[in-house]
Design brief:
about 325 residues; alpha/beta; Nucleotidyltransferase, domain 5; 2 domains; 5-stranded mixed sheet; elongated
Length: about 325
């Protein structure tokens, strides 16, 4: 994700997410921004007295900073004596940071920060760039970077729009959706697999969220069920599902991925995770939860009558005791 400036609307959304208890990475995912952008915004615009991030206060602090920066830039443009001093020091190959330090120390001129000097050079006196020690050159991408590797991995995934049309019709058992719900510790999760047609749920407490542990659980589920009930599996884009190629080789599943931030493409899974949150509320720690606790909640949901199933239970529909 590329960096872009926060708008007032972005700040309102961020403040709402923070109040709801979301972490910075979760806020970045929801707002479709780089995590460093979220971190920078919170660091710059958190109220110094209250220690809280408020959208209106953040907007005011940003506006004040911009006004102050614009005033500093005008200081250089309107002060010929200061301009001559900066140019003289640049020609001695002093850096803008050193020049700013001298201005702060000597008190002979109005002090300005090094960023203001850089801005003045690049916007008003571009011919002075040659005196800077580090002049930017054309960027050449290095091959084998993490970003390029991630792009290659993403390109290999089969997306939801190439999934067989029969999956959308919900007329057969065996089309599954998968994701995890996160505890307050962030490291401990509950992995969930839900059959789209019946709503039948399988879930596992995961103490250490690793791709290997997730793959092993899904393989275990697949080994307990007949092949005719294992057609497709549609997953979230989390790194915990990164061993999907090996999983596809070891199970009958054809694996597909929803598009990033398109949680509605796994609507059955999202809805079921919401039902499971009744037993394990958002913000609660999962350290004290056992697999027995998870199994008890799963059994409750699988034997709960559903309106969309004509008040049959997911378990009855999945095991064929009630016709679709």
């Amino acid at each position: 994700m590329s960096y872009n400036h926060f708008t007032g609307q972005d700040r309102v959304a961020l403040a709402t997410l923070i109040r709801a208890g979301h972490s910075q990475p979760e806020c970045a995912k929801q707002l479709k921004k780089d995590p460093s952008t979220i971190s920078r915004e919170i660091r710059r615009n958190t109220h110094p007295q209250t220690g809280r991030y408020h959208a209106g206060e953040a907007q005011r602090m940003t506006r004040n900073r911009r006004t102050q920066a614009n005033q500093q830039r005008r200081v250089i443009m309107n002060d010929l004596r200061l301009q001559r001093f900066i140019i003289r020091r640049l020609k001695r190959h002093d850096s803008p940071q050193q020049i700013a330090g001298i201005l702060q120390k000597e008190k002979k001129y109005i002090p300005v920060c090094h960023e203001t000097i850089y801005h003045w050079i690049y916007t008003e006196r571009r011919e002075l760039r040659g005196y800077l020690r580090c002049t930017k050159k054309k960027y050449r991408r290095r091959y084998g970077t993490n970003k390029r590797e991630k792009q290659r991995e993403e390109a290999k995934k089969k997306r939801i729009d190439v999934r067989p049309a029969i999956v959308e019709q919900r007329i057969r058992i065996g089309d599954w959706e998968g994701d995890t719900i996160v505890g307050a510790e962030k490291t401990q999760r509950i992995l969930t697999l839900v059959d789209r047609t019946s709503g039948y749920l399988k879930a596992c407490k995961v103490d250490v969220t690793s791709a290997k542990r997730v793959r092993e659980f899904i393989q275990d589920v697949a080994s307990q069920l007949p092949k005719k009930k294992l057609h497709t599996l549609t997953l979230d884009n989390g790194t915990e599902f990164s061993e999907y190629e090996e999983l596809e080789e070891r199970t009958p599943f054809d694996i597909y991925f929803a598009y990033p931030y398109h949680s509605w493409e796994r609507g059955t899974n999202e809805n079921t995770n919401g039902l499971l949150r009744f037993f394990f509320p958002k913000g609660s720690a999962f350290a004290s939860i056992t697999q027995t606790d998870v199994d008890k909640a799963v059994r409750n949901l699988n034997t709960r009558p559903r309106k969309r199933l004509g008040y049959a239970t997911p378990s009855d529909v999945f095991h064929g005791r009630v016709a679709l």
